[in-house]
Each structure stands twice: as C-alpha cells, then as structure tokens.
Amino acid sequence: MPSPRSPLSRLLTVLLAGVLAGLVLALAALPTGLLGGLVAKASLGAYEELPDALRTPVQPQRSYLYANDGKTLITTFYDVNRTDVPLAEIAPVMRQAIIAAEDRRFYSHGGADLRGIARALVANVKGGGTEQGGSTLTMQYVRNVLKTDPTRTAEERQAATEQTVGRKLQEIRYANALEQSLSKDEILNRYLNIAYFGSGAYGVAAAAQRYFGKAPADLTLGEAALLAGLVQSPDAYSPIDGDKNQATARRAYVLDSMVETGAITAQQAAAAKAAPLTLRPTAQPNGCTATAQGRDDWGFFCDYLRQWWLTQPAFGSTPEEREQALRRGGYRVTTTLDAKVQQTAQQQATKVYGYDDKRALPIAAVEPGTGRVLAMAVNRHYSLADNPAGQANHPNTVNPLISGGASVDGYQAGSTFKLFTMLAALEAGKPLATGFDAPSKLPTRYASDDEGNCDGTWCPANANPEWMDGYRMMWDGFGRSVNTYFVWLAEQVGEDKVVEMAQRLGITFRADSDAAFARNDAADWGAFTLGVAATTPLDLANAYATVAAEGTYCSPLPVVSVTAPDGGKVDVGQPNCKKVLEPDVARAATDAARCPVGQQSAYGQCNGGTATGVDRIVDRPVAGKTGSSERNATETFVGFTPQVAVAGIAANPDDSTDLVGSAVQAKVIDAVARTIKAAVAGKPVRDFTAPSRELAGEPRRPQPREEPQRPTPRDENRDNLPSDLLRWLQGRG
C-alpha cells in the first residue's frame, strides 16, 4: 500500500494540479490542427518506449478443455473470464454503444480529450475520491492493460490506478503514442477485449455470454447499450450482481447518447428503452469441480490432466507458473478423453456400485501405442461438496481414485501381476511351453512360522486344487491362474527380475512400504507375483497396453494437442514412447493372455479361463487377466485388444480391511468387457500376431481342446501369504 501523504505534500499536489490543469486548458484552446501536430511531435518515437504489454498485449484469457473430438467442452480454467475476439465478430451496435457511452470524440482525438482531463484532474486531486471522467477509450485501455499485466509486480499494477498527476500524465503520453502507431479500429478492438463488464466478465465476448448466453456478434441494440453502460461502474450496475434498476437507467443513458452521436434514431432508442430487460445469465465452468453439462465424472480426468500440465516445462519453469499459464494463458486444449467411452465406463462403474456405496470400481482405459487416456470413471461425484456424516469419500471426493497420487496409493490387483512373472520368464528365454507339475501347496525358500507353513517355509496354495493342480505351462497356468505354478516360475527367473519388469511397464510403487520392498528386498519378494503391491487402474491398464502394443511403453498422456491464443501449436501432446520388450516376448505373453478370456491361443494350448464370458461380450480378438487379492479384499480385471486396454479394480478406497467379496468378480469382468466393446465399436477388427515357434516351445504333451467348466469364483490367492505379511498388509490400510 502507498504510504499516506503529508498535508504539505497534498497541498503541493493540488497546486501542481492547478498549474497543470491551466496548461491543459491552454493547450485545449489551441486550433485542432496545431494541437494535433504538437501531440504527434511529442509522441514521435514514444511507441518503441512503451511497456511490452502495450505494444504486444498478453492479457489473461480463459483456457478451454475439450474432449478428443475437439468440440465437446469439458471445462474452462480462468482467473479472469476473458476471450479475445476480432472486431468483425462484435456487433456494430456494440461498437457504437461503447463510443457513445465512454468517448464520443474517439474517432477525432489523438488519444486524449484535454478539456475533459483538465476538469477531472483538479476534481480528482482535490477530492481524493472516485475518479471523475475525462479518460478516453485509449487512455482507459492503457490503464486496463497496466493494471492487469501479469509481467508487472503487484505494486506496479496498483500504481496504474493511483489518483496522481504523474500517473495521469504518463497515461496521456502512452495513449498518444498508441494513437500514432495503431488504427482507431485496432484500439477499439483491444479495448472491447479487455474492459471489465462486471459479474466476472472481462471483454465483450465473456460479457455477452455471461449476461445473454450469446456471441458478441449477435447482440441486439438494447443488449449492447446495457453492456456499454456497465463499464463505468461494473459491480454496482451489473444486473446480475448489482442493481438492475441502475443498469436499466444506464442503458437509457447510452441509448440517448447514441441518438446524439447519430448512431441510431430517437425511435430506435425509444423502442429499445421500452423493451424488457431480458437476461439469460450463463456461468462458464471454472476448473475440474465445475465441468460442463453437469458431467462431474469428467472431473477425475480433468484433475489428472491438470497434474500432468503442472509437470510440463513448456508452460513455465515452476508448477506455480504452469498453473498461472493454465488459468490465464488462453489455451485451447484438445484432450484424449473419449466422451462415449467415458460414458460407458461411468455407467458400468455405477452399475456395479452406486454413488453412495462405500466401495468403488475405478476404471481406466488407455490406447496402446500412444498412452492416450480415453476414460477415467468411478462411482463418485468429483466434487468438494460435503458428504453425509461418517462417509469419508462418498458420494463426493476429489481424491485421485483412478490414477493414484496424493493420499491414494492404490489397491492390490491380485493375479494380474502374474503377467510380469510371465514376461520376465519369456525374456529370460523360457518358452510358453515351460512346464511344471503344480502342486496344491508349494514349499518355497522363504522362512515362515505361519500355521500352514511347510517345514518352516512359506507355502502358497491353489484356491481350486481340483481345477488348478497338475502339469501346467504358461498358457493354462495363466488361464487358470495357478498360484503355485507362477510362484515357482518367479523363483526360476528371480523375483527381482519380476519386480523390475513391473516397473519397466509403468507400475509405480506409491506406498512407502511397497517402494521399500522394491528397493531393498526385491529378490526376496516372493509374494509379488500374486499382486500384493498396491497399484491403480491407470497404471495397470497402461502396463497391459504395453503388451498390446508389442512391447512399446508409452507414458500415460491426457492431451492430443494444445493451441496457444495466437493459433500456434505448443510442443506437447506427442506420445512419449519407448521399446521396453522385444515384440516376440510381448506376442508370447498375449498368446497366453487369450486363455483367461475364453479364446484360444495361436498354438491351441488354452484349456480353461477365469473370465470366459469376455469372448462373447467383446466378440473380437481380446486378451486379459483376472485378479483376486487375499480374502477377496479386492477384485480386478484387465483386458485388452490391439486398440485399447481397460482395467477396473473393485475396492474400498477408505478401508482395505473391508472385503469386497468374490461375488463381485463377475460384475467387474462384465463392466470392463463392455467398456472395451464401446472403445472398439466401429473400428476395424484387428488380430494379435502369433509369437514365434521358438518362444512358444514344444509342449511335452498335447492339451485337451475342450474347456472344463470353471468352479464358482473363489479367492485366487487364499492362504498364499505368510501371517506376518498379512498383518503388515492389513495394518497398512
């Protein structure tokens, strides 16, 4: 805040103001031609000395987020509700109205109305109150730019509105310089795009939308007169937030002024005055909690995009600068969100659990080969609204339940992690035909004092011995989700190799305990293959998308393109991909992943699956895996085609000890499968490429072609974890 001036200082200012006012009046009395010449000479070369913001204005503008069709609005971000439009897109009556209301001599003066300034100068300095008239549109434009220029300090922006002689003289000088270099129409256009019209609307485009729900090109005479009347005192005159009667009176004043300038006839003014004040106020959505069309489920994707934005150097050197760029930069962002896939995923998530259910089904869909995130759905409202007593995160939450982060570590995904063991084994040269006579219980090298231990070692077990035990290869071991086969296989290749494979495919250990295991004890993390580490639907879908893309990992990506206000493309939005697996390794894993979903491998080795109904629903080449965590605390399914990967995990985000139960597994499978079906609808059918004979290997014995009926779903990982690990997992929640 500026320091208070002493009485002597105020007296000197008044005396100086009187002298300056006399000088201004004397200048104003000069012949117009002579005065114009003096002003032009004084302003010669001054344009190059103007602040950058006046020469090349960069004013805060609203950023728009659209779905991947480039048309469906998700939301907007703004500190200042403002969008630039060219003069040709502003109704002529609006241009005439603002000139009549604020600066009738706009097209004849050289930037300053000296008689008006002299009158206002003395009144403002003596009174110290609200600024009086006298400022031309050009001078008002200068003031508006300087007080909102984001490159200036807060003190500099405040100084742009101080009631001082020095500030007024600088304003005159800047206005004259602009008039020597810009056309009147360019100045008028800039003014109309920056003036504040009240109710949060900066610029005529935002004002036309805010008050009348229309574009500025479509404003009527009465609407234009109303808006033009607001700029003198926007907050007081706003018919939405201020005084509707004052707004109507100001409209009448502007209409009378338009008659005096010859813009309209008296009859037109009378008709416009007699018309009722009809408002159609619309509020632009602002941020992720105010998405368009009432689709609050889009908020989770919006928040993921915002978090991604804050990491991009193209928008600033710090997260704070990037946040400001999103809210003030006027970007047009075409996101990767597919509104139709999102709608299906949301319908499926809420079909399994309602919005008010303490349990949740977060679902994520990713495009293989690009990492583009097509959908992020969960049975929650993305909202800051209060929840009923005792309900922590339902029905309203802004926590990242689908992508993880902040306080969300994720959820155990059970046997879906067997994929990473299979990939590590294939990469180590073990073919799909690698066989093992899987027992009901498998003694391991890990010490355990659990009641069910085998001579002091951990003994994982098969949940359905009659269906899982026996000689297995990767095909039917994966299809039937045989625990003892995959724990054995992990021992053969090294558990640390399995953990590294998961990380290579994008599995992030957000829980401190998981990160510590991966960092310090990966070689002894025997239970990792059974999915005891927390993950998220987005990470899991993207990991399986890497296999679908034949070994190409792409970082999850929420944008297709970002366009700056000048129409230039920002260098972001390109997929960030790299080869992390040999294509043949990924093809071999996909071949085995055909077994769980009721399809057949290229080598005819599938003989049973845990999600055979997926084949019927998707009705095209598909692969995937189910996962049940210990005691059915969570139920997971992830499926993929060459064009999409979708994962869903049923869990209680607030209480890991609340077991969702095996009965929900079939519903989770159905929800994910139907989301896949929606994502590939209308796209050409693409098949998976068969792996090489070398990586397939030679089965020791032929497998039966008939598919036995799978028993009622049970916990795939029951009794598989040592008691101390179980206690740790339960305590972590």
UniProtKB/TrEMBL annotation:
The record's annotation in InterPro entries points to: Beta-lactam/transpept-like (IPR012338), Glyco_trans_51 (IPR001264), Glycosyltr_51/Transpeptidase (IPR050396), Lysozyme-like_dom_sf (IPR023346), PBP_transglycosylase (IPR036950), PCN-bd_Tpept (IPR001460)
Classification via SUPFAM superfamilies? beta-lactamase/transpeptidase-like, Lysozyme-like
What GO annotations for molecular function exist for this entry? penicillin binding; peptidoglycan glycosyltransferase activity; serine-type D-Ala-D-Ala carboxypeptidase activity
Q: Which superkingdom?
A: Bacteria
Give the compositionally biased regions (Basic and acidic residues): 695-721
The protein's UniProt keywords, in alphabetical order, are: Carboxypeptidase, Cell shape, Cell wall biogenesis/degradation, Glycosyltransferase, Hydrolase, Multifunctional enzyme, Peptidoglycan synthesis, Protease, Transferase
Q: Does the entry feature the keyword Cell wall biogenesis/degradation, yes or no?
A: yes
Tell me which residues make up the Penicillin-binding protein transpeptidase domain: 364-665
Q: Report which reactions are catalysed by this protein.
A: Preferential cleavage: (Ac)2-L-Lys-D-Ala-|-D-Ala. Also transpeptidation of peptidyl-alanyl moieties that are N-acyl substituents of D-alanine; [GlcNAc-(1->4)-Mur2Ac(oyl-L-Ala-gamma-D-Glu-L-Lys-D-Ala-D-Ala)](n)-di-trans,octa-cis-undecaprenyl diphosphate + beta-D-GlcNAc-(1->4)-Mur2Ac(oyl-L-Ala-gamma-D-Glu-L-Lys-D-Ala-D-Ala)-di-trans,octa-cis-undecaprenyl diphosphate = [GlcNAc-(1->4)-Mur2Ac(oyl-L-Ala-gamma-D-Glu-L-Lys-D-Ala-D-Ala)](n+1)-di-trans,octa-cis-undecaprenyl diphosphate + di-trans,octa-cis-undecaprenyl diphosphate + H(+)
Query: Where is the Glycosyl transferase family domain positioned along the sequence?
Result: 73-258
| Chain segments carrying region Disordered | 687-733
- In Gene Ontology terms, what is a biological process of this protein? proteolysis
Q: Does the keyword Transmembrane apply?
A: no
User: One cellular component GO annotation, for this chain's record?
Assistant: outer membrane-bounded periplasmic space
Gene3D superfamilies per record: Biosynthetic peptidoglycan transglycosylase-like, DD-peptidase/beta-lactamase superfamily
| Similarity section | In the N-terminal section; belongs to the glycosyltransferase 51 family. In the C-terminal section; belongs to the transpeptidase family.
This protein is called what? Membrane carboxypeptidase (Penicillin-binding protein)
Organism field: Micromonospora sediminicola
